[in-house]
Design goal:
By secondary structure, the protein is α+β, with helices and mostly antiparallel strands. A four-stranded antiparallel sheet has the order 1-2-4-3, with helices on both faces. Strands 5-6 form a two-stranded antiparallel sheet. Helix content is 29%, strand content 21%. The chain has a single domain (2-176), classed as NADH Oxidase (3-Layer(aba) Sandwich).
């Protein structure tokens, strides 16, 4: 059940050195292509790299929150053509979540690396850094890089008791939703 996958999915930042199997790469990328987009424009595109030297360089795209990319089996750059849609951020974000959920379904670990609106240690935008590194045309903006690999850490699944029920409202703001 999808709800069970959602409860199990956690951000994994430690990976084994086992390579990512081709069938799992294919399944991840196909699942991203299934993600919905506004008016079915599908402005997103995906670039998968499993080359260690590229992953090492991607891990340096910003000072915090990307270093684990160097240990991942692969990184999937989630980008969108900004000339095709004004809601590319939302569309690329949904695709990123599809990748995270499919990774969990496949028994893989994954973690979202935020790229948009982030800078590297030199003050350069992380998007520009990645665009140059991977020869991505200027009309594309990069939303995220999804680090993927075989997990080298285990995290406890969320339980219903972990949910923030106080954030649920019913009929008007401030009225608690009656969770069963």
């Amino acid at each position: 059940m999808l709800y069970d996958i959602m409860k199990k999915r956690r951000s994994i930042r430690k990976f084994t050195d086992q390579p990512l199997e081709r069938d799992k790469m294919d399944m991840l990328l196909k699942s991203a292509l299934l993600s919905p987009s506004s008016r079915s424009i599908r402005p997103w595109e995906f670039l998968l790299t499993d080359e260690k030297d590229i992953l090492e360089k991607l891990s340096k795209c910003k000072p915090h929150g990307a270093s684990f990319l160097k240990e991942a089996a692969a990184g999937i750059v989630v980008m969108a053509d900004t000339e095709k849609s004004d809601v590319w951020v939302e569309d690329a974000s949904i695709a990123s979540v599809y990748l995270l959920l499919m990774a969990e379904e496949l028994g893989l670990g994954a973690c979202w690396v935020q790229i948009r609106k982030r800078d590297n240690a030199d003050g350069q935008s992380t998007g520009e850094y990645i665009r140059k590194l991977l020869e991505i045309p200027g009309r594309y903006e990069i939303e995220s890089v999804i680090a993927v690999g075989h997990p080298a850490e285990n995290k406890t699944a969320y339980g219903d008791k972990d949910l923030k029920y106080e954030k649920l409202h019913y009929l008007s703001f401030g009225k608690k939703y009656p969770v069963q």
